[in-house]
């Protein structure tokens, strides 16, 4: 992480295309700084799954949405979420 760049405590990503999973419609991702326990869980998941799948579980945990919902998020929005959370790893 670049020491000169301040990372936001929270980031809200308005999804370019809402995600519909069952009756639920998700229009935004609300991300925040993960705590150390969440980071530890993510690093353990890296040995269980592919790096992208582990990151999708991490996004789901932090955004408080289901992993299947994260799987439906568009690539550009997913990239923004991954880049934000990478700041804390």
Account of the 3D structure:
This protein is α+β, with helices and mostly antiparallel strands and 89 residues long. The protein has one domain (10-86). 45% of the residues lie in helices and 24% in strands. The chain contains 4 helices and 2 strands; from the N terminus they run E-E-H-H-H-H. The protein has helices at residues 36-45, 51-63, 67-71, 75-86; strands at residues 10-21, 24-32. A two-stranded antiparallel sheet has the order 1-2. Strand 1 (10-21) and strand 2 form a beta hairpin. Helix 1 (36-45) packs antiparallel against helix 2. The radius of gyration is 13 Å and the shape is globular. The model has no long low-confidence stretch (mean pLDDT 94).
- Describe the strand arrangement of the main beta sheet, using strand numbers: 1-2
Major sheet attributes: 2 strands, antiparallel
Q: In whole angstroms, how far apart are the ends?
A: 9 Å
Q: Count of DSSP helices?
A: 4
Taken from the alpha-carbon principal axes, the silhouette is globular
Mean pLDDT across all amino acids: 94
The level of helicity is: 40-55%
- Rg over CA atoms, rounded to whole Å, is 13 Å
Number of domain units: 1
**Percent strand:** 15-25%
Per DSSP E runs of 2 or more residues, the count of β-strands stands at 2
pLDDT < 50 stretches: none
Assembly state (oligomeric):
single chain
Order of helices and strands: EEHHHH
Structural class: alpha+beta
């Amino acid at each position: 992480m670049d020491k000169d760049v301040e990372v936001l405590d929270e980031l809200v990503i308005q999804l370019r295309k809402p995600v519909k999973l069952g009756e639920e419609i998700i229009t935004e991702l609300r991300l925040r700084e993960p705590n150390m326990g969440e980071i530890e869980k993510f690093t353990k998941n890296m040995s269980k799954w592919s790096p992208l799948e582990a990151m999708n579980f991490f996004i789901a945990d932090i955004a408080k949405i289901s992993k299947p919902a994260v799987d439906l998020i568009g690539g550009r929005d997913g990239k923004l979420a991954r880049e934000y959370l990478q700041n804390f790893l």
